Amino acid sequence: MLISVIGAGYVGLVTGACLAHLGNEVRVVDIDRARIERLRGGEVPIHEPGLDELVAAGLANGRLSFHADQSGTYGSQLVIVAVGTLDRAGEWYGELVERAVRGLAEDSRAPRHLVVRSTLMPGTAVRLEALAQAIDPDVRLCFNPEFTREAVAVRDFLEPDRVVVGAGRDAQALVQELHELYAPMGRTILDTDLTSAETIKLASNVFLATKISFANELARLCAATGADVHAVVDGMGLDLRIGRSFLSPGPGFGGSCFPSQVRALPELARSFGIEAPIIAAVDQSNLGQADWLIDGLERARGASLAGSRVALLGLTFKANTDDLRESPALRLAERLVARGARVVAYDPKATEAGVVQLAAGGVTVDAAPSAAEAVIDADAVVVGTEWAEFGALDWAALAPRMRGRIIADARRIIDRDAALAAGLTVVAMGVTHTPDGGGAAARIAVPVTAAAAV
Ligand code: UGA
Questions:
Q1: Does the active-site annotation cover 257?
Q2: Is the overall model pTM greater than 0.90, yes or no?
Q3: pLDDT tens for residues 190-219?
Q4: Domain limits at 324?
């Protein structure tokens, strides 16, 4: 099928390159000429495992091409709109999608079959459809959400758990085309209406974010009762109704999707006069995780971090990406600085030697060129992102270079036995592990009222 994609950003590039890989002819259009030129030369502007290879293959076999204006869509059977939906503050806004849909509707040579893939607030697609059909009644519109995670987006696209197609008015022919497009994946395709499809996307993300926050709150409780939170989430996850994924406690969730969407959904509910207290609490719970982790570090250290030097390992919001947006590791940095610590950070993708200016709060931290250099003279080490290389750090060699003897591992990635053997204390999810074998130092007595009730 000959298709086009508007937007050479994260979603558009993955969509375009994967659909070309599946045998379609795909034209990716973006108004950013410099970006298009780079892509024509095979230079992919985002870090996403597997994407460079797909783009190179698509360019080589001629099935993938890049265009700097809308004429690139002419002759395509359908056009997928995959433009950005976040403003500078990281909150959802639909202006670019609306502009793209309007521009296509007004251009009679552009395809009349429009598929929106950018994330939309429920109710937006119906408005976009009305807007487009007021310009040209022949336009048909579907909403086809993406469920791809950064760092594994290519795999998620090619092997999705499901494909969701929200159909607009009289859009049966377009729905049929989408079924053909996705048929090679052999996955379940759920057909529904526009607003339900938008809600599936948003609710899926917010539910996963809620699951993570639930696990984070459990970690706080387990640290107090002496339970092992990882055993607890493993045990819960074996229940097929619950499932283990997205139950790993950590420094809180980040990225361009979960944080903005856990804020947007309760706001949407409020706009209808509906309270959504569970969803509304998720953001606060998530933001509180960094302070809880640092409280645990200070408790285990037996001293405040004021005036100390802290090595922060990892800055990106998760491993295998260069994305710093709403990163929980950055929140850790901000909280550390707020408590008077000097932070020296290392991240395999996000730091270059020199000073890193952190986005939120305008906090600055020093950047080290390697983990080994970040820990020199550190009073404490904090692990903020689960990069595989942190699991291979040689603590026997690193410990003598540190001034302090403590590591807070918010991602459960470091080799704890090796760190303990090197004489270091490891604080993991509120539990302090000491070289002399202490593993539940944070346990507190059962409150009297609870004990009496047993
Ligand atoms: C998320 C969704 O998972 C995708 O399905 C969706 O398509 C995408 O948003 C989007 O709307 O575009 P992404 O933001 O790339 O994908 O990242 P995730 O892998 O979902 O991780 C989000 C955050 O949760 C990360 O900070 C991660 O470290 C954290 N996390 C994840 C946990 O703390 N614990 C877990 O068990 C899982």
A1: yes
A2: yes
A3: 999 999 999 999 999 999 999 999 999 999
A4: 289-433
